[in-house]
């Protein structure tokens, strides 16, 4: 998978060289390129933002700088002010191969070599395991990190209109200073699902938020079985795998109901077994 990250703080992403993510790059499973948005500015101050149209606090990231950068990374032809309002038909040419096709459905993009453009945004739909799974099948992701009060709303619009798969995601109901931390979170959730990324692929099968059973995980313990007077549930040392599975499933259901009742509401009832229904 190729990953381009556009940011005004490229040094933020030096941590991507460590751990499994670093190893995946060494093995050629991931190719990560971080770009400094300021490299596409033309003024002496390398400014990427301006005051909001209509007034208000803070600064908004300028569309021209983003477009120059994105056009180059996406291999799209730059448009002039005169041509940009016109459709491909009006111009008599397809300005980009994607212009000829309607916006792809998420299903289509999973096997598509075309890049998926992702903007973290606190005002967007929540990023979740389903989105991470879908994006883990992509061949090329381009992340755009906003700063200040965000980016000009026409940027995602413009590329969506040209047939690109453009997504905006929030990673939670809180506001960060910029998109860099959100991109790190999304990247970790996405890339660990790529076949071959994890040392032990089994470790992603049983996890919370996975599959139609999206439950919180049961609790985990390791040795010693008694530590500072606290003993692990005896059933886990019984050697009876059927009872261990049932115990863990009941614990997962109970914890989910208590901590995240919304996940219980959203459960696919056909995924529940007879014993679950009694829990
Ligand atoms: N940028 C600022 N806050 C954010 C959030 N919660 N999610 C994604 N991007 C953001």
Automatic annotation (TrEMBL):
Subcellular location as annotated: Cytoplasm
EC number(s) from the headed UniProt entry: 2.1.1.228
Entry's Gene Ontology cellular component terms: cytosol
Catalytic activity: guanosine(37) in tRNA + S-adenosyl-L-methionine = N(1)-methylguanosine(37) in tRNA + S-adenosyl-L-homocysteine + H(+)
GO molecular function (one): tRNA (guanine(37)-N1)-methyltransferase activity
Enzyme class (EC, first level): transferase
Database matches in Pfam families: tRNA_m1G_MT (PF01746)
Residues annotated as binding S-adenosyl-L-methionine: 146, 171-176
InterPro entries per the UniProt record, alphabetical: Alpha/beta_knot_MTases (IPR029028), tRNA_m1G_MeTrfase_C_sf (IPR023148), tRNA_m1G_MeTrfase_TrmD (IPR002649), tRNA_m1G_MTases_N (IPR029026), tRNA_MeTrfase_TRMD/TRM10 (IPR016009)
Swiss-Prot/TrEMBL GO biological process terms: tRNA N1-guanine methylation
Chain ranges of the tRNA methyltransferase TRMD/TRM10-type domain: 1-76, 112-265
Keyword annotations of the record: Cytoplasm, Methyltransferase, S-adenosyl-L-methionine, Transferase, tRNA processing
Subunit structure, as described in the record: Homodimer.
Assigned protein family: Belongs to the RNA methyltransferase TrmD family.
Protein name per its UniProtKB record: tRNA (guanine-N(1)-)-methyltransferase
Organism: Bifidobacterium bombi DSM 19703
Source organism phylogeny: Bacteria, Bacillati, Actinomycetota, Actinomycetes, Bifidobacteriales
């Amino acid at each position: 998978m190729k990953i381009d990250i556009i940011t005004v703080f490229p040094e933020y992403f030096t941590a991507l060289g460590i751990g499994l993510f670093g190893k995946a790059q060494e093995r050629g499973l991931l190719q990560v390129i971080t770009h400094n948005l300021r490299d596409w500015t033309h003024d002496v101050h390398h400014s990427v933002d301006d005051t909001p149209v209509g007034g208000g606090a803070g600064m908004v990231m300028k569309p021209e700088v983003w477009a120059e950068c994105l056009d180059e990374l996406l291999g799209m032809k730059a448009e002039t002010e005169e041509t940009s309002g016109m459709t491909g038909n009006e111009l008599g040419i397809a300005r980009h191969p994607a212009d000829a096709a309607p916006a792809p459905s998420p299903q289509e993009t999973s096997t598509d070599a075309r890049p998926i453009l992702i903007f973290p945004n606190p005002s967007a739909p929540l990023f979740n395991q389903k989105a991470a799974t879908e994006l883990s099948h992509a061949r090329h992701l381009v992340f755009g990190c906003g700063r200040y009060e965000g980016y000009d709303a026409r940027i995602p619009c413009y590329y969506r209109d040209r047939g690109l798969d453009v997504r905006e995601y929030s990673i939670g109901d809180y506001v960060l200073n910029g998109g860099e931390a959100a991109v790190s979170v999304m990247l970790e959730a996405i890339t660990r699902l790529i076949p071959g990324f994890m040392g032990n692929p089994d470790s992603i099968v049983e996890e919370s938020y996975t599959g139609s059973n999206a439950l919180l995980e049961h609790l985990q313990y390791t040795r010693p079985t008694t530590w500072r007077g606290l003993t692990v549930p005896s059933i886990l040392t019984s050697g009876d795998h059927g009872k261990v599975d049932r115990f863990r499933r009941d614990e997962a259901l109970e914890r989910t109901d208590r901590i995240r009742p919304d996940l219980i509401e959203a459960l696919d009832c056909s995924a529940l077994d007879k014993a679950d229904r009694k829990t």
